[in-house]
Fold:
Amino acid sequence: MFGPSEIQSFFRGYAAVLEDEEVRAISRRYFIANGFDMTLTTLGVVLGAYLSGVGSGLTVVKVAFGAGVGLTTSAVWSVWEIERAEKRSEIRSLENAMLTDLSETRLRRRRRRGQVINALASGLGPVVGITPALWYLFGLPILDATIASAVWALCVLFVFGVYMSRVSNHSWLISGIRMALAGVVVAFINLVLPGGG
Amino acid sequence: MSTVRRLVLDMMKPHELTIVDIADAVADIGPGVNGVNAVLIETDRQVDNVKLTVEGDDVDFQAVETRITDMGGTIHSIDEVVCGDRTIDESKTPQDSL
Structure:
C-alpha cells in the first residue's frame, strides 16, 4: 500500500524529472506534433462533413471523436514504445560502459518517469486538437458551427506556432502564421477536391 | 565493531549524475556522516571516475554503498579506511620516498 511518504516520493520523483530539459524538449515535440496532426484532422473532418452535406452536428462530433480516439491512442502508444526502446538502449549502453546492472537504479526510474511524461504529453496534443469540433455541441446552425470550428482550428494552430516561437526565440507572429497556414492549405485542398466547394 | 570515521572510495558514475548529486546523496545518509568530498579524477566518453571521501562519527559503509549503487554508480575499490575513537592519518615510512 502507498503511505504518505511513498506518495510524496512519487510526486517528488516526477517533479524532478519535469525539471529535466531533455524530458521537457521531447515532450514538447510530441505534444506539438500530435496536436498539429489532430487539429488538421479535425479541420478536415468538419469541412469534409459540411461539403458532403452532413446535416447533423452530432454526427460531425462523433466522427471527429472517432478520429480523436484513434490519434490519441496512437500518440500515447507509439511514444510509449518509441521512448521505451530509446531509453532501454541508453541504459544498455551505460551498462556496457559501467560493467554493471542498472535496472534497479535511479537512472532507470528517472527514464521510466520521463517515458510516462513523454507519452502523456503526446496524448495531450490530440486532446487540444479535437476542441474545434466542440463548436457543434452549442446548437449553432451547421454553417455557423463549421465556420466557428474552422476559425478555432486556425487559432489553435496559431497558438501552437506562438508556443514554438517561445522555445526557438523567433517572432511569435511569423511562427504562428506559419502553423496556421497549414490549416489554410487543408481548407483549400478540401474545397478544390472533387465533390468539394 | 569500532566505528568507521573516514572512507575513501574510488567510484565510477555516468556523466548525467554530477558529483554534486553524489556528494549530496551520500551526505544525506544520516547523522553518522558529517561531511563528503567528491573529486573528479578522470572523465571518459560516458562515465567518470570519482574519488569520494566520507567522514563522520559513524560512517555506515553498507549505507554508502547502497546509496551509490541506487543512484547508478559503482564502487571500484575502498582506498582508505579510518576506524576507532579518533582519526589517524597515514604515517610516512622510508619506503614512501623510494
User: Anything to note?
Assistant: Chain A is about 80% helix and 0% strand. Chain A has one domain: 37-192.
